Amino acid sequence: MRVEAQALRFQPQGVSAAGQGNAFAAQADDPSAIHYNPAGLTQVGGIQGVLGINAVGGSVKFNSSMGGDTQGDLGGSISFPPPSHFYLSANLGALGAPWLSALTIGIGLTSPFGLNTRYPIDGPFRTAATSAQLPLLAIKPTIAYKITEDLSLGVSADIYTFASFLGEGHAEQKQMSDGALGIPAGASIELSGSGTGAGATVSLLYSPLRNEEGKPITSIGLIYRTQAVVPLSGSLLVNGAKVADATTNLVLPQIFTGAVAVWPVRTGQREWKVEVNVDYVGWGSMKNLDVHLANGATIPQPRQWKSVPVVAVGTEYKWLNPGWLPNWDVAVRSGYTRTEDPVPDATFNPAAISLSSHTMSVGVGFLCKGQGKFLGLLPCSGESALWPKGMGVDLAYQEWFYDPRTVAGNLNPTVNGTYHAFVHVGAFSFRYLF
């Protein structure tokens, strides 16, 4: 549950995509296709891998309608652990099975949902939240099949779980007691839990138009991500002492995505792509996060969120082996994302701050092959099977401009007031090709 315009959802799961405002589902031509459009993995030749890290910072400012202000952050100046991703793909033909060259397999590790927020323990809404984190890990085994030269299908399992090397290894929310359930007013309350749930992603990529070299100049992507339920089991602690075992269900939404990419220019020297993605995110399935205690009591946490659209527009201009930098491909990227707020005033909770936003993105990419030198020192390609045939780095920056929001009529009146937030993301990834 990271501070994000879509509450729990963290959209940049690949640095090339992040630089294009997350509009990548119809391009999907690097290993991050495992997340954005598994069918696109058929475009990723040989064996390739990507390791990326997002440095996320920002703050939330609150002006109470009852008097009193406060400010929160994302667990520090930079959120830790940083949301990261790793992708590894392999075309089966490159693994010594040419009769299976239509199949590509992959594995992804991502942080698509998460939260890390922190507020002063003496703040005006301390009975709603003082801190929260959800270091959720997604494991994505993936297979893609090229049916024809123009049409590919992809499927991935989406396994959501927790790991001890990510944060506390469990979901956690802290607040101060308001005196309910027999817990003394002012006592520190901590709810924590972990568990594993699963969903799936099914997608297709269709490229009806190609240039003379056989590269797509128009591509269409359709992706469906199923709903997933992650049962959380843990404890209720009061002033640091365990009071009862606790359980709840975290419901992650189904997502429909449609995407179109067009290359007005695609030659052996230059490429220019423009893409539009539209997501429909089924947050309407988030009805509540009620916590059930082993003693039979229930801590109600109604949500009643609504489903919302997300629109992303992105572009990439790429120079292929330019004379001013031989043996390199160089890309510049930019994009824009509009996200709508799914959370009603009545159930708004600062633990998962949710505001509509405009996201501006920029990025660059460098891919070195052939006789090039990476960082001027390492050969980008070698004869040894243990040495990559190419190396690259991608950089991106996103700034999320949030619409101010005034909450009124909340079930917890201390939450009522005006919220302002800003978030910035700096992303880096390293890519290698075998």
Give the helix/strand layout.
Elements: H1 15-18, H2 33-36, E1 47-64, E2 69-73, E3 84-91, E4 103-110, E5 116-118, E6 131-133, E7 137-146, E8 151-161, E9 171-176, E10 188-194, E11 197-210, E12 216-225, E13 228-238, E14 241-252, E15 255-266, E16 270-281, E17 291-293, E18 298-299, E19 308-320, E20 328-339, E21 357-369, E22 373-374, E23 378-379, E24 390-402, E25 405-407, E26 417-433
Antiparallel strand pairs: 1-2, 1-3, 1-26, 3-4, 4-7, 5-6, 6-9, 7-8, 8-11, 9-10, 10-13, 11-12, 12-15, 13-14, 14-17, 15-16, 16-19, 17-18, 19-20, 20-21, 21-24, 22-23, 24-26, 25-26
Characteristic terms for this protein:
2 helices, 26 strands, 53% strand, disordered N terminus, mainly beta, 8-stranded antiparallel sheet, 434 residues, Porin
Spatial strand arrangement across the major sheet: 1-3-4-7-8-11-12-15-16-19-20-21-24-26
CATH architecture: Beta Barrel
Output the CATH class name: Mainly Beta
pLDDT < 50 runs, ≥5 residues: 1-6
Approximately how much helix is present in the residues? under 10%
Give an account of the 3D structure.
The protein has helices at 15-18, 33-36; strands at residues 47-64, 69-73, 84-91, 103-110, 116-118, 131-133, 137-146, 151-161, 171-176, 188-194, 197-210, 216-225, 228-238, 241-252, 255-266, 270-281, 291-293, 298-299, 308-320, 328-339, 357-369, 373-374, 378-379, 390-402, 405-407, 417-433. The model is unreliable at 1-6 (pLDDT under 50). The protein is mainly beta and 434 residues long. The chain has a 14-stranded antiparallel β-barrel. The protein has an eight-stranded antiparallel sheet with strand order 5-6-9-10-13-14-17-18, with no helix packed on it. A two-stranded antiparallel sheet has the order 22-23. It has one domain (15-433): Porin (Beta Barrel), CATH 2.40.160.
